[in-house]
Structure of DNA topoisomerase:
Amino acid sequence: MTPSITHTNPLSNTLTLDSTYVFEFEPFIKTELNLDIDRTRAPEKDVCKFYLKGYCHKGKNCQFKHSRNDRTVVCKHWLRGLCKKGELCEFLHEYNLKKMPECWFYAKYGECSNPECMYLHIDPESKVGECVWYARGFCRLGPECRYKHSRKAVCQCFLSGFCPKGDQCPLGHPKYEVPNSTNQERAAQAAQAAQERVPFERRPFRSLNDVTCFRCSERGHYANQCPYRRNYNNEGGTAARKMVLTVLCVAEKPSLAESIARILSDGKHRSRKGISPVCSVHEYEGKFFGAPARFKVTSVAGHVYTMDFPRQYNSWDSVEPGELFDVSTQKMEANPKTHIVKHIATESKGIDHLVLWLDCDREGENICYEVIKTALPVMKPPPPGKTHTTIHRAKFSAITALDIKKAMDNLGAPNENEAKAVDVRQELDLKIGVAFTRFQTRFFQGKYGNLDSSLISFGPCQTPTLALCVKRHDEILSFVPKPFWSLGAQITIDGATLSLPSERGRMSDQKKATEIRNSLKNFKTATIVSVTAEKKSTSRPHALNTVEMLKGASAGLGISPHETTQKGHSQWNVYVRELLDKGFTKPEGGHDAGDHPPITPTRPAEDGELSGTSWRLYDFITRHFIGTLSPNLYYTRTKALIKIGEEVFSWSGNKIRTPGFTNVMHWRAMGDEVTPVELREGLEGSVVDVGLKEGETSPPDYLTESDLIGLMEKHGIGTDASMAVHINNICERRYVQIQGNQRMLVPTNLGIVLIHGYQKIDQELALPTLRSTMEKSIAMIASGQADSRAVLEQEKEAYRRKFQDFVTKIEKMDELFEATFSPLASSGRPFSKCGKCRRYMHYINLRPARLHCRTCNETYTLPSNGNIKLYKELKCPIDIFELVLFSTGSKGKGYPVCPMCYNHPPFDGILPGMACNTCPHPTCGHSVTSNAITGCPEEGCEGVLVLDATSAPRWKVGCNGCNLVSSFRDGVNEVRLEDDVCEECAARRLVVSFQKKEGMEDLRGCIVCDDALDALLETRLVCAYGSHEGSWPGAGQRTRARTWWERTWKERF
């Protein structure tokens, strides 16, 4: 028999049971436990009436619920197991998601970064009640009123006497009676409620034997009376303390942090998101130097800081390149959008120890000190009188449990010398590269129009890399082919035909080769004079390192080195099982530099899990790894010498005995070459023909990416991590082009002229010798044999002299450019008028996009990566230059540009690159002052949202500081800006008119506060860069928007 169970309330857990059904345990409850079961009792009667009055002497043994009717919020201390009040707590002790307390972060900041937050996210505006005075028609407090002022159109039905929709009507129902709830009446109501409130008796104190201290986890005292808490005396000594240490571990990559936490915690770690969107935090409890500790394992994402010049030196026009050698550099956050600095500072606050798990090379040591720079100011200082360090360095070379735990047991200190060596290299590369690049870019782009490169760069590693490609190009052009002749014979033995080459090889004397062939025409018999069989082997590959992976991926898979560094089985089951059954030997050879482990697969993957080049790269790495554990390739090489007259010919072939590693590395497999008959000494055959073949030597091929990586490794150009970057740079700068399936690097005219020009001025500029000398000095810094400042000054002076010599002899390189490229005066097509001479300037549609005035001999750079067209022949009110329109497409941004203002801003404090959407002109209709709406909601962006009037009829709103763009939906005919601003968010009001077919009236309002206007946008503005959907800027961003308007818009009016 099944009881009938019904819910009395959809939101209640109270059940009503059919009274005709009797459970088997009911008699036991009534007779043994003396408890009453009342099926008809209301849920309110389940509450203990003594408990409601203040105290129940039965305590936990009471058969009724100990809960108050006013307890509607779950106890947040009970959720963490820390509530000390027990049943006397004023809050609920039950897990009810509908009664959770409000999230403090969401209430204070308007957002919560924890996607698993269990607390309630209540919109602050929803907690604000409607102002009864404003609903009546007028509120004397105006914007200072703490209640909500909702503007609604009056409901005509309500005015007529009755509205059928009632409270659900979206229109306003004004009440004409005066609100009678005065402050005096409210005070009287509060006093009466206080008198009617049931007095609460103080709960009895618990015995100290039931109290557990959360500091030391011992019973018998509260935390404020803990004898082990930190207590320093007046003499500066320290008392003994027993506290749980906090240890922060920082790895170089998020995946590495998760692996370290999993190994050290034996898989018992907990993970949570941090402030950075790319780095999580993994927590667990354990022992640190024998003391109980709470561990937090997180990571950075490469370098935390990057080196650059101060902002005032970023102008190419106002700063001479030679001055940069003496400018002091500064370190700035490498990627502000990831918030790595804030993330490390937050997780480091109050920690006792910092353990650095960065890569064990120079770059890793440099990142160690970048983390220390961020964490040290907020770490807990060591106790007075203690000298032990709180910063530790973990040394490891593989992500295995053995290596990780061994590194944790043998912590050391970071190497400051290696970190300084990297700082010196970064500063030298920055100053040398920027000085040469700025000078030669300005010099040549101002003279020639078809360079097709936005930047003519120079780099201590990049330039020697390009020189290797140009050297091979020069070898190909200078190659002179030479003729040669080779002798060959065709014989038959026991019905089998064999083609035999002569042992003489190639002959350069045609007359002698012809005489030898003629002398053999009369011989009809060929005799085998010797047959040798030699056993040979091919060694299996070494463990795969980064350089070999880049070479193999380029040569065998057609994947560029740069793409390879960005990527991160059932096919081998049978072979691997045989290998495990028969046993395998560890890989041999190779060099352990201690910085990176060999590249190996970490888990099996199928073709469906990875796609495209990712799967092909995984397949290559896995096959190579299995090959390192496989036997060598063994084969037998057979060679037979055959005489025709006095001339010796040969035949050779291979017979595979054991394929070994080629079972999986098929691209290195060797095929069998056997004759259809058995060759033995003394066996004779018939001569079919003796021929002479003519040929000529061929030039070498262009360097492939694999060849170039090998040469870079040979000459010491770059590191295993930077080689791919240098090759990618010379491709992006259009110095070389990649051609064919073999990915050959063919230099362009620009790359060839650059290297030849360097060679005419100074041979060392295109050779790796300068870099080699620098690397030797940097290595001495890393080993502690040289002072970093002294090496920096020495190398800086050496390159300063090279730069000064390069500037004085630039005409030698210019001669090559003049012979190869067209001058600006003969490039481009007539486009827009110059504001100085009123003649047409010519538009050069090559990288970089430029306008050149042949009359004034002036060149004006335009924005790149977009389309340029004339903008209605409108002119700039400042310099009378015709405006041009820049656009990135129908879904991208667009804005007018004055060529003169873009290159030479007329306002103080504004750097070159000022378009009309950033121009502060007070009256121009295209300036930011005329078209700005509000501050950009994107975090970290200081830009302003601007109405893009050039996009009509597809109206858009875009930020002039970032790529945030949103379009109005179809049907919008026109968008106009008004002069007044929104009282709540200080955004400028808009008027949106619709097409006639839409049949809609004009909308007027603010796109931040008015949902009707916000709904017209095709993409929610704040969602474009990961903000919460449907939410507009918080209080801080609105304050920034208001501040901007007070500074610009209000000054105008």
